[in-house]
Amino acid sequence: MLNLLRPKRPEIALLDPGPPQEHRSALLQAIAEAVYRLRAGLTPSGPLPDPVGAAAMALFDALQARDEANLKRTVGLSIQASEAMASFSRTTVEVRDIEALVQSMASALQRLDGSMKNLDAVGGQTRTVMLESAQLVREGAEAVGASTASVEQIGEALRKLADRAAALTQATAQITEIVGNIDAIASQTNMLALNATIEAARAGESGRGFAVVAQEVKALSGQTARATEDIRRRIDRLRGDTDGLGSCVADAETAMERCRRINADAHAKMSAVEETRESTAERMGDLFRILGEQTDATSQLAATATSISAKLAKTVQYSHAAVAACKQSETLVEEQLADFDNRKPRDYILHRAKSDHLLWKKRLNEMLAGVSRLEASELADHRSCRLGKWYYGDVEPAIRRLPAFAALERPHEAVHVHGKRAAELFARGDHAGAYAEVEKMEAVSTEVIRLLDQLIAR
């Protein structure tokens, strides 16, 4: 049975004391042998004198107490080293993740910096276009003004033309009236010529000369009638043309009025466009100024992110160096713990189990940090580890009856389950899942350490 209680003092038989001179060398050799066997948990091979036996037991007790103290210090050092190793490994993981994020951010900022510079270039082109548009707007406004002036001039000319057309219509009416008078006179003259002809015929030979004159007057009257008829037809055509001209002038005046309104509306809109352009140009100027500032800020951020990424890469290297240094100290601690295997101080298994569990945690965090490889097959189950072999072995009944002993089984098993699961997930590339399993393992591992401390302090 594994004895975790304080070892009992072996019974030592006493010899009769002999002369010191004769037995000094033998006694010293016997004491050394007795202490060695006592520390190894064996019974001395022979009896010792009472004073010597008492001294040997006192020396044994002192060495046992020193071994227990050294074991606690060594295990404490192992725990601290394992915790530091786990922290360094976890820090390495976090820093490496931050480095990846910063590198991604630096790349994004560099792309953003390029986009901002392109936008600034586009802003310069926009400023040029705005200036050109301002010139075009001014030219358009001037053209609209010139068009309005031309429309006014045309309108004035049309009004004069309308006045002339009205005057022509009035003159045509007067000519028509005159032609009517001439036509009436021609008709009367023709009537007079006809009467003269009749009278000449009555006069006979004496009226022949008068008949000739009457004939000429009649002929002249006919010509006058035909001329007045031609003039009347021409005046009618002129009147129609004058009326058409008046209608065209009226239509032109209507169109000119519409053109005048359109020009006025266009001028008002061009003025509004100019005001909007000026306001837009002012806002664009503010925007371009802000874009310039943002471009400078983005460039600085990109440079800062690149610098941070480089420093994080250095930090990862330093973390790896710290992990390597911790691994060297771990080797020294393991060698020192191995020295206690032969002497088995009190509660050696329980102290060693605490160290084993912190080493388990450290190895899993090293795996997450990529410092070392760890396969699930390398990890023992909760029955095959040092603590498991003791727990399911021949434990003293006094310890088995303790509540801490009964409560130890489930969290101890969970530590191994979560640890093996973390190694399996990490091997499959599911780093997030492995990370979660390690956190679960650390939570139950804390409970295991707490219960082991209760057993040690019983």
Automatic annotation (TrEMBL):
Gene Ontology MF: a single term: transmembrane signaling receptor activity
GO biological process: chemotaxis; signal transduction
InterPro entries named in the record: Chemoreceptor_zinc-bind_dom, Chemotax_Me-accpt_rcpt, MCPsignal_dom
Signal peptide: none
Cross-referenced PROSITE patterns: CHEMOTAXIS_TRANSDUC_2
Domain Methyl-accepting transducer: 73-309
A Pfam family recorded for this sequence: CZB
CC annotations in GO: membrane
Organism domain of life: Bacteria
Protein name as catalogued: Methyl-accepting chemotaxis sensory transducer
